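Components:
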Amino acid sequence: MTKEQQLTATIADFISLVAKRLPDDVFTGLKELQREEKQPLAQALYQCIFDNLELAETLQRPICQDTGLVQFFLRAGTQFPYLDSLEEILRQAVLKATEQTPLRHNVVEAFSEQNTGTNVGTGAPWFEWELVPGSQALSFDVYFAGGGCSLPGRSKVLMPSEGYEGIVKYVFDTIVDWGINACPPLVVGVGIGTCAATAAVLSKKAMLRPVGSVNPDPKAAVMEQEMRRGLDRIGIGPLGMTGSKSVQDVHIEFASHHPATLAVGITVGCWATRRGTMTIQSDLSYEIHSHKQQKRKNGQEEGI
Amino acid sequence: MKNVLTTPISDAMIQDLRIGDVIYLSGMMATCRDDGHRRRVESGISPAFALEGMSILHAGPIIKVRDKGWEMISIGPTTSRRMEAFEAEFIRQTGVKLIIGKGGMGPDTAEACKTYKALHCVYPGGCAVTAASQVEEITGVEWEDFGMPEALWILRVKEFGPLIVSIDTQGNNLFEQNRVLFNQKKEEEIQRVASQVHFSHG
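Structure:
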């Protein structure tokens, strides 16, 4: 086996794991929501969710049939030795994972509207790159962008006079109008920037942050907490069927913005947010950051 | 006691069910989503599987092809609202009695459920392995040219559920009722949160 094949296999196996098991932060967050839930129907739905997670683990199958369009958010060391071939390696890893897991075929070519049947196509898997100067390692998030939870996504450029209040209204309108169909409790990512594109990208990065994490900027942290509290009080509940809470978390990521614009983007993840984070060293040793808990019996997590 | 409906479904079997009721289904269903609805309604082509008195599931499964037949790996519901543009006409043309999906549907579907006596039910979204374990057999596939998610997979299911009735035969719509409730609370909460985030350099 060549080093490239070894790297491909490592990443393919990780993609398969992400399909079958929730990341630790999402699992723990859902457990907490289940404990706090008071309404009987909502409690029954949480039980369905945890029964399904356990069955997926036992049978080694994807948690949800919609294994999404695979996206990579790469933080690549400029000295990582496989940079030149990395996109091809990741495409091969998706092909391999599609076969071995198996993943659903979710890549439809634009205009011809033909499903490629491989999960690889034009711009699929999707790559977002950041370079890390001097590093020999590759870190990345892999995310399954499902259809249902991609549907509420949107971005808009507000007038600065609409202020952060306008951002709140845009987020709340979106979550109540579309979020209730996107398998709540949702992870809500909000991006703030200059134009529709940067706000959208930042909202995706916000959504990918671990559940329970807080923005280091104090005002952003207040806004995260207040929006979470406000959405929770609406009582959307699991799967939009009403309940004690609404969301897993609300995250904000921002960039400075043009004085004449205040753009907002929204990206949400469903209850089954399937995200994995790993770091691979130049010798191909690796560490999985997102899935450290061991076997989960009867819905209880066990640390390593 | 589980309330289990068995196909074929008659009007009498469902006319007293109301939104929020929980039922299970045994018998035959076909998966049908965006492309299947469009072909049936726009092109008027009927699948060989007769839908009258049967159920459809808004879902695109993961299926493993075996030497003989298929194995259901994972099958959860997809967002029903995408099918709103076609569902009323689909119900009228096919006589389907149970539409199963995720999230709510709109006023046209609710009106059709009332007129033609049908139900829209919600299967818990994302619970796709549990749902797969309730599929006894994949008896066939039609319109395979759509690809794996969009093809019509014909399934025999046993106690498929829980199914929460979201539109009943009187046209009551659980998600619309919830939406009104959520919207009332939303306006209050927007006001409250907005008052906490008046950030300016002023």
